[in-house]
């Protein structure tokens, strides 16, 4: 997978109704199934930025496919296939969408993001500094930023279609979806995180935290959306890990760093990203794919 022309939308390439357009993904209705197309759009601070990042969508979709296949023995998921050729004349230029498509079962989405944290960093660290807790979970005193937690913790967020998702406690999640479903989701989420964390360790990578989405098909709980991508997970290179600092994560960190230092006021869309930032971000996405999927001895 080399650098290619970035794809900002697939609307002109798909002969099916567009039912949802997210910051990165587009959802098309195929009748029995959905078609997810992963574009190269990139977002930060709630804005979709220009230009799109070449290969980003290929990486996200290929990684999701990889992780869904790896975790299928432990948790059913919504994937039907990822073969653009099987879509026939629904796609006008299959070559442009080769690694970007995922045909999925239609599930009833559970309106909660299931977040698992193995390290205290990011928003979790900010909560802990203020309250000594994360999502209502009391943690030991004296923890340091980026410190590994004794056990991974489940810190869900209620999904909002507009604005940010809202951190909630375990009890609040029980009120939303019921105690039995909450317990199932917590158990499955921590199991999946632990499995992936161990896998990543063998490749010199730390999976600091991640988020899952689940849904129901005929009463069966399944994984949906994406899984263990750099957009849904915080990956650190093991050799960059240290306490009490901002660790350079293996994702769109160059974009966030550039914007934070650009003088942008975050109240309107920023100027287009410089070529150097786009190229470095594209390189990082390709690197995380290579490191996670390449054969090891």
Span of the ends, CA to CA: 22 Å
| Biggest sheet details | 8 strands, antiparallel
Structural class: alpha+beta
Report the mean per-residue pLDDT as an integer.
Answer: 95
In the predicted model, the low-confidence regions spanning at least 5 consecutive residues are none
How many H/I helical runs? 6
Tell the overall outline: globular
Q: Helix and strand succession?
A: EEEEEHEEEEHEEEEEHHEEEHH
Q: What's the alpha carbon Rg, rounded to whole Å?
A: 19 Å
β-strand amount: 25-35%
Number of strands: 17
The percent of residues in helical segments reads 25-40%
Tell me what you see in this structure.
- With 297 residues, the protein is α+β, with helices and mostly antiparallel strands.
- The protein is 28% helix and 26% strand.
- It is built from six helices and 17 strands.
- Helix 1 runs parallel beside helix 6, helix 3 packs across helix 4 and helix 5 packs antiparallel against helix 6.
- The two termini are 22 Å apart.
Topology (elements, then pairings):
Elements: E1 18-21, E2 25-29, E3 33-38, E4 42-44, E5 47-49, H1 56-71, E6 79-81, E7 101-105, E8 108-109, E9 112-119, H2 122-131, E10 133-134, E11 137-138, E12 148-154, E13 157-158, E14 166-167, H3 170-177, H4 179-201, E15 205-217, E16 220-224, E17 233-237, H5 253-260, H6 275-293
Antiparallel strand pairs: 1-2, 2-3, 3-7, 4-5, 6-7, 8-15, 9-12, 9-13, 9-15, 10-11, 13-14, 15-16, 15-17
Helix pairs in contact: 1-6, 3-4, 5-6
Short summary:
This protein is an alpha+beta fold and 297 residues long. Helix content is 28%, strand content 26%.
């Amino acid at each position: 997978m080399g650098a290619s022309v970035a794809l900002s939308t697939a609307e002109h390439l798909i002969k099916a109704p567009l039912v949802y357009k997210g910051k990165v993904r587009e959802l098309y209705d195929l009748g029995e199934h959905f078609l997810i197309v992963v574009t190269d759009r990139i977002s930060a601070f709630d804005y979709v930025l220009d230009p799109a990042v070449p290969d980003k969508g290929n990486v996200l979709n290929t990684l999701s496919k990889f992780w869904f296949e790896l975790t299928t023995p432990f948790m059913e998921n919504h994937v039907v296939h990822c073969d653009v050729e099987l879509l026939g004349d629904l796609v006008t230029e299959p070559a442009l969408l080769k690694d970007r498509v995922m045909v999925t079962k239609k599930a009833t989405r559970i309106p909660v993001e299931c977040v698992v944290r193995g390290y205290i960093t990011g928003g979790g660290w900010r909560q802990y500094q203020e309250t000594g807790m994360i999502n209502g979970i009391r943690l030991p005193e004296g923890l340091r930023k980026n410190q590994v937690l004794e056990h991974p913790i489940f810190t869900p967020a209620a999904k909002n279609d507009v604005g940010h998702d809202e951190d909630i406690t375990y009890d609040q999640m029980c009120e939303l979806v019921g105690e039995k479903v909450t317990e199932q989701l917590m158990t499955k989420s921590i199991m999946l995180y632990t499995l992936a964390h161990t896998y990543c360790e063998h490749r010199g990578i730390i999976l600091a935290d991640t988020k899952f989405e689940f849904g129901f098909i005929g009463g069966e709980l399944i994984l949906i959306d994406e899984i263990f991508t750099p957009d849904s997970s915080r990956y650190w290179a093991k050799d960059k890990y240290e306490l009490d600092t901002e660790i350079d994560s293996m994702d769109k960190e160059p974009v966030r760093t550039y914007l934070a230092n650009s003088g942008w006021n975050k109240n309107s869309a920023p100027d287009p990203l410089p070529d150097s930032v786009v190229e470095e971000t594209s390189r990082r996405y390709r690197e995380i794919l290579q490191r996670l999927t390449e054969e090891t001895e």
